[in-house]
Specification:
heterodimer, A: alpha/beta, Rossmann fold, 2 domains, 12 helices, B: alpha/beta, seven-stranded mixed beta sheet, 9 helices
Chain lengths: 353, 261
Amino acid sequence: MAKVLMKGCEAIGEAAIRAGCRNFFGYPITPQTEVPEYLAKRFPEVGGVFVQAESEVAAINMLYGGAGMGKRVLTTSSSPGISLMAEGVSYIAACHLPVVLVNIVRAGPGLGGILPAQSDYLQATKGHGHGDYKLVVLAPSSVQEAVDLIYEAFDLADRYLTPVMVMGDGMIGQMMEPVELPAMRDLDDLPVKPWATTGAKGRKPNIINSLYLKEEECNANNWKLKEKYDEIERNEKRSETYACRGEKLDVLIVAYGTMARICKTAADEVKRVDKKKIGLFRPITLWPYPYEALAKEALKAKRVLVVEMSTGQMIEDVKLAVLGKRPIDFYGLTGGMVPSPDDVAAKLREILK
Amino acid sequence: MKKIFGYPESLTPSPTHYCPGCTHGTIHRMVAESLDELGLRERTVGIAPVGCSVLAYNFFNCDMFEASHGRAPAVATGAKRCRPDMIVFTYQGDGDLASIGMAEIIHAANRGEKITVIFVNNAIYGMTGGQMAPTTMPGQVTTTCPFGRDPGHEGYPIRVVELLNTLKTSAFLARVAVHTPLSIIEAKKAIREAFRLQSEDVCFTMVEVLSVCPTNWGLTNTESNKWLEENMVPYYPLGVLKRPDGDETPTPETVASMEGA
């Protein structure tokens, strides 16, 4: 299929349609508003349902209702809006419902700023809403990968009956790149959902619920969730390595999303000019985190450098992977400041001294 | 022999957890009877958010959703928009709908979501043990206004159907009560009418039901019914406040005049 030039947010919307999603509920917030704008215009052509919710709180609850009806549902937002959705996502996870949400991360905390950031890592992978649940978190580093991961996110959500988040920074949402769009899914071939609340005709009523007043029942649901998360951890860890061939590395950079692309340029530069072996490890699933794959690469290196558009969030997972066996350095900028290849190269030279 | 009275198919046979004298059971039954009479049970999903009725999924014999506090109209929006052929109702208390869920109810009504909202107003938070609600009457004592609600401090009770009546969007808005046999008959008519309008895809429908909470009011059942009549009915007038566009719209009018609607 021929490539088309698309803005990240619009490509995300089109990828959702191609994945069989016809139901979008969302609220405007920079820098992801082009997704609802695109779908508001595009959905009528494909028979989709678009509702601009009164808030992110309402939007995520509309998703909850739509997912319960067995439909593929999508919302997109940015950091402050994702915070507001936390309660709803907790209910959705507890009820074993499949939804896809996109966080085009902007600078925080508070109102922060509208420029790219990676400061929602801990929120997405460790916390977000209340209770014992996990979000599957996918981190694209290009518009093409955003398209591919959105397409796959709906399948993951349906396979594991769990919320899946695609987390890109503002750059993913705003930049234009050539993309190859995947084929349009046949709506009749989507997974059958016998648990959906589509009317108790000829069967007992289906109930979607996360209230368990008996402690044994609540405990049982939490361990049922945990079993599912264990299965996801076994099956779905994804990562990519760059320039890691061979037995020895001087430095292994660990970065995700668009930051990883910038780090590739820095790694190439330091390799060419300084004749040092610089590898890059890029986690694609932020949860489940590819600890084992990272440990394998990290042990080949003398040092590890974590680069993030935050003051250091993913570094906690890198430390868990490396377990103190290698020194770990950090470089980060925040507030919408994006480290340049020169910034990262300078940090590499500093730690190589 | 012809059977003239029985247990509604849309209710499960399980006993409810409601307190003695509570009117949730009566209102559940009226919803169930309406679904039965209109033949809607097999394509209905009910949504009960946090409050005394959060366990309603145990009592209604149709597909059910439990929702977070105040968000039922948003959940209902998602459900109905994804499956417009379904009958979707929410069953909400006054703390849920008129306090934490005010944004969701106003916007669902304003969008004209074709759902039915059963809004149970007993002027107090029941589940958490008798705190002040947005609908608590001036002077009414609750655990969080122990000296009585002071309008100078807490404002006046919110009249929700009147508030929604300011919206231009077509709707069926009624207020009924369940403290006397006659009022129960009128309440049933309004609830059935709301479901009928939804089943014909006409408009947003909401029935506010003035209800009692003897446990948290600290009154006997009989005293509670009297208190409702003397304190709530004058402030919350009963009747159909709004009929869908194109229908005759005398507002406000009494529920009694709904005969033959």
